[in-house]
Amino acid sequence: MPRTNLINQLLGANLPFAAFRLPGKKQEIQVVAQNDHHVDLIDIEEIDKQKGFIIAPFDSTVTGKAWCIRPDIYVHNDGSAKQPNIKSQEGTGDIKMSNLETSKEEYLSRVEYLVEHLSSSTLKKVVFSRMINIPPLPGFDPVEFFTALENKYTDAFIFLFKLPDSGIWVGATPETLFHSTEDTVTTVALAGTRPTDDITWTDKEINEQQIVRDFIRNILGDNNIDSFIERGPVTIIAGTVVHLKTIFQMPAEQVKGKAGKLLRELHPTPAICGLPKIQAYDLIKKLEKHERRFYAGFSGPWNLGDKSHLFVNLRCAEMGDSGINVYVGGGITVDSNPEAEWEETVRKSQTLLHVVEKL
């Protein structure tokens, strides 16, 4: 059956599910869904025992917990899926969304504070985010939004998921956190942002990405993973901006039995939180008006088809009673210019907002 029809049926049935498309022009939409409301909350360190679609909130930084949608229904690329048996569930009361937008004045003031704080502390970087609220749009269709993103951004991980009491989340993220096959495991350092019409990397962006590279290298070393290949940094296009990307690839046997521990230590990298991690996390919780919820967490298929692929939830939005909340952020260092950081978040927001405007 057409995947969009299935997604609409699952939304109507009020079931936990995820629809996604892996990066690449020839990839197809896949769907993982449960036939009941009880979604398991798992320990990330025990993720090797799981199978399904993993969804971790940003606060998994401290809780170490994530949700796992069981593949009671799994429609994937082989084209052989038959009509699933979908039974509607009673509503669980989707949460009321926040609309705690940060004004430009507030944003600039808090970035100025962060730059000053970084200059006199052991913190090297803090990722500061803001939320943009779009009031309810008559006739807006989340599935149409998901499909439009899927058609526009072929090199991104496109996702739509729904959990009980958590609303609907849609995104188009460029950042791989963890990708495993039979032979290899891959993670990336993705940081530093420039507009697509001015790809001139400054010391600020180069140093920002270097912080992430060093962090990942140290985590791999601490886990006795010493046979990795490091490639980059290279410039990649991600929607309306470009980033610096470095790939770390290692033999799968070196990660065997410790994928959960590695994920727990990698997430969140300095690309989405800061360094040192917990100090940056505490400062984020203090300064940001909104709760990040699933923004800057991670999600993706796990142990499906002998592969696992987790992505950082960037360029994402939640949909509910209060319209659409779009989340964007940027890395703040001692070299940050508050006005430039604001403009960076504006450019990043266009990845989703350009698509919303055309629906």
What labels would you give this structure?
nine-stranded antiparallel beta sheet; 359 residues; alpha+beta; Anthranilate synthase; 18 strands
CATH architecture: 4-Layer Sandwich
Helix count, per DSSP? 9
CATH topology: Anthranilate synthase
The 3D shape can be described as globular
**SS class:** alpha+beta
Strand content: 25-35%
Major sheet attributes: 9 strands, antiparallel
Please give the alpha-carbon distance between the first and last residues. 24 Å
Spatial order of the strands forming the largest sheet: 6-2-1-8-9-17-18-7-14
Mean of the pLDDT scores?
92
Radius of gyration (Å):
19 Å
Q: How would you spell out the order of helices and strands?
A: HEEEEHEEHEHEEEEHEEHHEHEEEEH
The residue ranges in which pLDDT falls below 50 over 5 or more consecutive positions are: none
In CATH, the homologous superfamily goes by the name Anthranilate synthase
Binned, the helix content reads 25-40%
Tell me about this structure:
It is a single chain. With 359 residues, the protein is an alpha+beta fold. The protein has one domain (3-89, 100-358): 4-Layer Sandwich (Anthranilate synthase). Helix content is 30%, strand content 31%. The radius of gyration is 19 Å and the shape is globular. The model has no long low-confidence stretch (mean pLDDT 92).
